[in-house]
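tool_call predict_complex ligand=4'-deoxy-4'-aminopyridoxal-5'-phosphate
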Amino acid sequence: MNARFANRMNYVKPSAIRELLQYGADPNIISFGGGYPDPSIFPVEQLNYVYQSSITKNGRTALQYTVSNGIPRLREQIAQRMTRDGVPCSAENILVLQGGQQGLDLVAKMLIDRGDVIVTEGPTFLGALIAFNPYEPKYVSVPMDENGMDMDELERVLERQSGIKFLYTVPDFQNPTGVTLSLERRKRLVELANRYDFIVLEDSPYREVRYEGEAIPPIKSFDTEGRVIYLGSFSKILAPGLRLGWVVGSESLVQQLGLLKLAADTQCSTLNMSAVSEYLDTYDIDQHIASIREVYRRKKNIMLEAIRQSFPKSVKFTEPSGGMFTWLTFPEGFDAAQFMRERAVPEAKVAFVPGATFFPTSNKPNHARLSYATQSNDSIVKGIGALGDLLTAML
Ligand code: PMP
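tool_result ok
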């Protein structure tokens, strides 16, 4: 049978990252491609305890349907953590999500009509493009430097192009570049959003995985008109398999998103929400996050040191203060996808994500994303050394 798909299926394609998973599964290849957290830091015993106790203490409730916005206690706990982080809010401002990824889909569904213009960083998170594409937006991408999105360029875009619906940004340790948006630019972004009347979608799953320097307040903390929607996630601070994240927004926006959540999947798993809520009541998650930071800080240092030692100077790399990624810039004319396919995988036995896939508008071929989160310290040294040998011979 030839299924007559909806037009939007023209914009639903397998991503470069899915294709890369084949390398991740090959034990002979060191893959810096995937963005999986290091599983050795999952709090397995504590989660075992809270799942059991959620069922023994409250099984009849924990296994029942609940309200689509999420169980009230977890929403309160999230609101308290967000308030402490500079975003004063209450449970009514929180919608619990099936991971931050669901927020990208629901916000796109709420805001985008075909042809609407949205702004992203260039490069941006591939999962966001995958979520937005079926709603058929047009993209404007604004370049970044070491302080995040270039606000002068954004202002030029806003002057040129009227009717922009929303701007998507990953301000903390961005995926894919590892770059953080500076304080001044966060404030200026909110001013521009107020002046040009658009919504800001602030997606910050790595925010708490900062291992150097002072935290910069969320963009949402400067929001004066309820036009910033914040997305958070338990994936990087507990475990991604829980599939739990959250939205913080004005009550009216959260209400609209709640209606879409009801249509999409009714609610998140009551049991998962109960267990995470009990985890937050029983254990000190901040202490757990401190241990995650330690692990990634060490891995980041190992990877950057190996890059410094073995890569030719013509290859530039970012120095993230948190998160899981560094972003490579090769000399102009270098094709990172071809390099990976023809040299890095067959000869060095190393995989990464070629950068072109992260650009919504222009395909810049001379970049790559490396994750230091998943590989062991030894594999990082070995893999980067092998890549460095190849690059030194080539460049
Ligand atoms: N946003 C960004 C920038 C991410 O890197 C990720 C995870 N790779 C997500 C959102 C989604 O994460 P989750 O759905 O697991 O919360």
